[in-house]
Amino acid sequence: MRATTLFILVVLTFTSCAGGGYVRKSRSARRAFENRKYDKALAWYHKQKPGRTDRLLYLLDQGVILHTAGRYQASLAIFKQAIDLSDQMHGPQVASKSAAVITNDNYIPYKGEKFERLLMQTFQVMNYLGLGQYQEALIEVRRLHNRFGAFLKQDAKPYLQNAFATYLSGLTWEANGKLNDAYIDYKNTYRMAGGNPILAQDLLRGSRWLGFLSDHQRWRKVFGKSYRALPRNRGELIVLLQAGSVIEKRSTEERHSLQIVPVPYYPELSGKPRPAKVKVVKGPSMQTVPLYDVDAAAVGTLRDNKAGIVARAIARLAAKEGAAVAVGKKIDKDLGVLLGILVLATNRADMRSWLTLPSSFQVAKLSLPAGTYQLKLIGPQGEYTLPNVTIEPRKKRFVMERIF
Known about the structure:
15 helices; about 50% helix; globular
């Protein structure tokens, strides 16, 4: 019986190391982040020694927290590590998948969903814009298009067509004087986001400056507006808003092929992203425009991945049950029973995802005379006072903000 006990202890130890505990373990740090206690949240991550299964998630969460805290240089360094690690893991994972057959999907190293990988690069663009380093931001935009251009095409799945990343790309091209490239991105944003009013002057200006007269007439009809040149003494304030917290997976059981298997699922979405309002104190205001619904992307990704998740779960359950029966017959009846119990204990849905992401990315844009302004952001949960911003003539000023 000593061998039986030792075997059970070994298996239990192996099971307890599953990466699925990351969501639970990191919850206190994420709550501190949502309460804007950034140092407290980061202190938790600094104390951890993540294994290979969850290392990417530790990096991604720290990158977002640093970005939200305005520590753009540190966020750049963390996201570079995350991007490099994700790239390394997007290949054959034979050993990891073998471990997953024994236990569950939590043993497969988390390498980032497709839409998450595009957002890693998007955060790098925003980090450089936050630093005012527009040429470096443009280098990241080029990388975004080189690496994820297929995601942004018309035939890509809807949740991969990220209108926020595309619009951000256009703004970055324009901030660097590359109006032709900017105009292409603005047109692609229009295709993804429809007749969004925030695009009106971008498309009217681009088509007029580039001499695309037929395009210009088309945009005038679409938006019912004429091109308004930006006066020499005015600049543009662009608020890049991350709103809410991305939806979190839950676990349930489903019957498939006479087997009951655990699967992750998302609760029903409550509706479309809700805009906020950017208000200049003693000045104009403008609503933010939601351009990318992260919740919808997460739900769409899981829907497309579900067949593979279920297939692995069924194969895993069959293999474990077969092993338990064999052990009971050939080695030890009690051991076979205990191993059968462990089959159920190790059947766990993979609940991991990048949970410091917002539920949506939104944009607001205001033309303002050169000067320094105090801003307020009015969201569904209340009003926030933003740091003062200085607008320079004929220049863009990017402000990043997060509300929960």
